[in-house]
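Minimal example, chain plus NAP.
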Amino acid sequence: MTTTHDTLIVGAGFTGIGAAIKLLRAGVDDLVIVERSDRVGGTWRDNTYPGAACDIPSLLYSFSFVRNPSWSRAYSPAAEICEHIETMVDDFDVRRRIRFGVEVNGLAFDEAAGVWTADTTAGEQFRARTVVLASGPLPDHKWPDIRGLDSYEGHKIHSARWDHDYDFSGKRVAVIGTGASAVQIVPELVKQAGFVKVFQRTPGWVLPRLDMATPAGAQNLFAKIPAVQQLARQALFWGHEVSATALVWDTPLTGLVARLGKAHLHRQVKDPWLRRQLTPDFTPGCKRMLVSSDYYPALQQDNCKLIDWPIATMSPAGIRTSDGVEHHLDCIVFATGFDVHLTGPPYPVTGIGGRSLADEWSGGAQAYKSINVHGYPNLFLMTGPNSGPGHNSLLVYVEGQLDYAVRGITTLLGENLRYLDVHADVQRRFNQRIQRRLGKTTWMSGCSSWYLTADGFNASMYPGFATQYLRQMRDFRFGDYDAVALDTHTGVDTRIRA
Ligand code: NAP
């Protein structure tokens, strides 16, 4: 017999663990978390490449409801973020609720019972009245679409699945990609490898990273007076919030960011030709801003070279660029990003009347307030459609989602509802507004990025300030939903009105 839980959480990364903590605090005790790996941590467990660290300060890239006065640096390394998540799991007694090694490969809603069934690759089924989908926006890495990829006979490593056994010393190494992962990897690789060639397709905007070890005095102060740490977090929050006026919309301040980026480039790169190669030609903010103080210096080391000729094909020996040069390589590092699920989870999600989320989202994902989708009741998406920030900490947005999901779930359980389904017209009007507002943002200014589908539909970013997003998520309107309760005496559905 399969037991029916009140809540199933899919994914034990930062978000899934945060959801468990918040739900437990709200009295939702009957919950289970399924995690496909054998450890918690999500993206921070998977991305262990040398130099992996968060490019948002840790005081802000953390939950406000989980105290950690001892972050070692302004921008903490991935391993420390993972440790923090492990500590959260133990401090809030979440570990015993996690089922490791369980990968969901299908979700279906049983309308009559008001229950979701999750199929898993191991064959085990989970049933739950509500589901929190917390598998993250970037769970799966992506090999690029490059001709002859499989013909290459040397060693291949993807940034998101680092091979710690590979010895780089004396090796000829290529790094393909110059995004957020690559700018962290390259400075570390040049210290280890014989020679590093960095294959760039599009130069990005790079701003200096003002990293430093947290002084012991500050750690002590944060531990003794938590309000001081909260104050520091608030200062960082508002600093980032202001930057939206330069990064989310193209304003005179965007020009200032461009000048800052160019000044950083000018200060760190003296060779005019290299500077030209590294100068971006798109509006700052359109792609994710890069934050690094050691990427440009690394490119100028004697054992490093930037290649900006397009890659024509891979060959058994390495990479052939369109200038006809064959680059012989021992190892290629693919810092080419992720298979972003802009069209939904990579498994079938079946809603009311057998509707398919993949079909409905084939042109790009759409949801109500990024969290609920009409026809898929009792399902709460974390980091869902149009919830991505371009200027602030993702976890600030996640906190808004967690509180909203807790409101929805406790309402559903408290009122003993069979289901809570957002009205189609409410969702449609919401998305019309979102897409109208997105049209005015830098993300739609013409560059190519993983924020957009192949057709240029923006299913990922929230077009506003974090403050606006949080206000939207604080406002749970029962009237936006079709709320259906099953009268256990008569067996007849009752529609509950706001
Ligand atoms: P990414 O931003 O998608 O960058 C991929 C890079 O690979 C780009 O430079 C891209 O060039 C290049 N590329 C892709 N396919 C290629 C091909 N066929 N030929 C040549 N070049 C190719 O991936 P990422 O750097 O892994 O970062 C992904 C996201 O992860 C980030 O936006 C961020 O949200 C997150 N991240 C966060 C942190 C952090 O510190 N918080 C660190 C790393 C990553 P084009 O630009 O021309 O497409």
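The mean pLDDT is 95. The two ends are 36 Å apart (CA to CA).
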